Amino acid sequence: MTWQSGLRADGKTFLVTGANAGIGYFAAEQLAASGATVVLGCRDSGKAELAMRVIRERVPDARLRRIPLDLSDLSTLPATVDALAIDSLHAVVLNAGILLSDPARRVSPQGHELMFATNHLGHFALVAHLAPILSAAPAGRVITVGSFAARSERLDLADLQSEHDYRPKRTYGRSKLAQMLFGFELDRRLRAHGSTTASIIVHPGGALDSLSPARPPLFSRTTAQRLRGLPANIVLHGKHSGAQSIVRAVLDPEITSGQLWGPRVFGLRGQPHQESPHPHMTDPGTATQLWSASSALTGVDPFDRITNTP
Predict the structure, then answer these.
(1) Can you give the pLDDT at residue 4?
(2) Helix axes 77-84, 122-136, angle to 10 degrees
(3) What average pLDDT does this structure show over 7-14?
(4) CA–CA distance from 167 to each of 6, 61, 105, 256, 302 (Å)?
(5) Residues 264, 235: contact at Cβ < 8 Å?
(6) Beta strand pairing status for 13-17 and 269-275?
(7) Taking Cα atoms as reference points, which of 169, 110, 153 lies closest to residue 281?
(8) What is the radius of gyration, based on Cα positions, of the chain?
(9) Residues annotated catalytic, as ranges
(10) Which residues of 56-213 form beta strands (DSSP E)?
């Protein structure tokens, strides 16, 4: 069984980062069915165009746009937000991310470790640049997409960018934990300010390509791939199912700021439900230090221009 909202969002605009593949694609496809205008923020314009074509095959009346988005390069983000050319944004889904396996540490154009730069710093700065139009919406939402991998990681505040001890899998998990800490800290600051903007944290559980429906020519799978993935269906699910926590967090008016949503069955598969976050994901002391470090590294503060109040 899957969660089906039936909720309409006509007249609203949602931005999904990394919407041309994986969970981001399925979130965009499902949100398009709500009647909202869905903006695909993607680094590759050709892949974004292909994703929009495939979405329209599934949702013929979909209202779609695309904008260039490279989260790894902080200098490009103001132009990205300008390209939206809208007065208000009802939700942004902070989904895009990279997972590197190369043992060699890579850096962004600004010299930041690439996974931390893309997954966390880029989204941190993007929210800062989006703040005025999020504030202009009656009840804007920032949806931060974390990861099950964050459960087993802890931040090293003295080595946020893995300069001294780089291990790809651990660095990835820490970058996703940083995102989740940011989401919870953003909620605390918004509520303290009396803002009507909400910060909601989600994770997709264990979402596999082999358990996801094909979307040719964007994404296909062979019979052999499908069969190899079937045993995993006992504990995991496809990326279309992983996207449902995101979609519910965007559309469900009963979900409120500061909540964490993920799959119901062991946090790995099933319908979305509200979870109790692990203490290390919400620790105010760690989050405050991370916020200060992120602001210093990006040169912006997401809270500076979020001004709406009830």
Answers:
(1) 59
(2) 30
(3) 96
(4) 43, 45, 8, 36, 29
(5) no
(6) unpaired
(7) 153
(8) 18
(9) 172
(10) 63-68, 91-94, 141-145, 198-202, 207-208
Question: What residues form DSSP beta bridges with 66?
Answer: 40
For residue 240, which of 62, 6, 30 has the smallest C-alpha distance?
Answer: 30
- What is the spatial distance between Cα 171 and Cα 57, in angstroms, rounded to a whole number? 38
Q: pLDDT tens digit string along 87-135?
A: 999 999 999 999 999 999 999 999 999 999 999 999 999 999 999 999 9
**Paired tokens of 128:** 């800062």
Answer whether 305's CB lies under 8 Å from 136's CB.
no
What are 35-81's pLDDT values in tens digits? 999 999 999 999 999 999 999 999 999 999 999 999 999 999 999 99
H/E element, 37: strand 37-42
First-to-last alpha carbon distance for the chain, in angstroms, is 37
Rounded to whole angstroms, the Cα distance separating 62 from 57 reads 9
Nearest C-alpha neighbor of 185 from the set 286, 300, 309, 299: 286
Q: Are 302 and 131 in contact (CB under 8 A)?
A: yes
Instruction: Tell me the C-alpha distance between 37 and 6, whole Å.
Output: 16
**Contact between 199 and 190 (Cβ < 8 Å):** yes
The two tokens of residue 144 are 């931060």
